[in-house]
Specification:
oxidoreductase activity, acting on the CH-OH group of donors, NAD or NADP as acceptor, 8 strands, Rossmann fold, SDR_fam, NAD(P)-bd_dom_sf, single chain, alpha/beta
Amino acid sequence: MSEENKRVVVVTGAAGALGDHVVAHFSKRGERVVCWDLHAAGHGKLVEDKERSSVWQQQVNVTDAQAIASAAASVREQLGPIDVLVHCAGGFRWSKIEEIGTDDIDFLVDVNLRSSLYVVREVMGPMKSRGHGRVVLISSRSTLKPGAGEGAYAATKAGLNALVSAVADEVKGVDVTINAVQPSIIDTEANRQDMPDADFDSWVDPAELASIIYGLCPAEEHPINGALLVVAGRT
C-alpha cells in the first residue's frame, strides 16, 4: 500500500492504556496514526514517533477547542484528510452526589463530554464533504445502570451516547459512521491499583477492545452506524 493510500487515523488519549492498544492495532495494519495526548511529544506540532513507523505524536488538549482545530489543521496539511477518529480520551471520578466537588464535576464534563463534542465537530464536516469517515467514541456500560457513586461520570458518558445517536442520524446517506463502545471495567494497571481485590479476569481486555474498535472502522462501506456496543468482560 502506497503512503498516500494509507488512511489517516487520529487517536485521542493515545498515551493511555486503551489508546496505546488502539494505536498499535491500527499502525500494525498499515494505517498512518496520529497520537493526540497531553503527554505526547510535539507541543502541538506533528512529530514522527522515533520508535514506531507510521506513527506521529502531537501534544493536544482535547478540552481546548482551539488546540483541536490547530492540531487537525496540522494533520491535514502534513498527512491529508482525517479518515478515522477514535476518541479514547476520558476520565473517571467516583463520588456520591452530595460529596462530589465542583472541580470533579468540571473535570468529568470537560474530558468526557466537552472533548467529545469538540473532536466530533472538528472531523465531521470534512468527512461529510468527502463522503467517507469513521468515528468511534468510548462510552461506558455504567450508562445503562449506574451504580452508587457513578452518577456524575455516567451522566457525562450518557451525553456522549446522545451525541452518537444524533450525529448518526445527521450522516445518513453518506459513507460516514459514528459509533460508541460501552465497556465494563477495562483491565488497566490503574484499575488494578484502585481495585486490588477485584477479579481481574472478569474485566475487559484492552487489546480485545481495540480489535473491536478497529472492526467498526473498515475502509469499505459500512452499515453499522449509531451503535452503542456493550463490551462486557468475562463473568
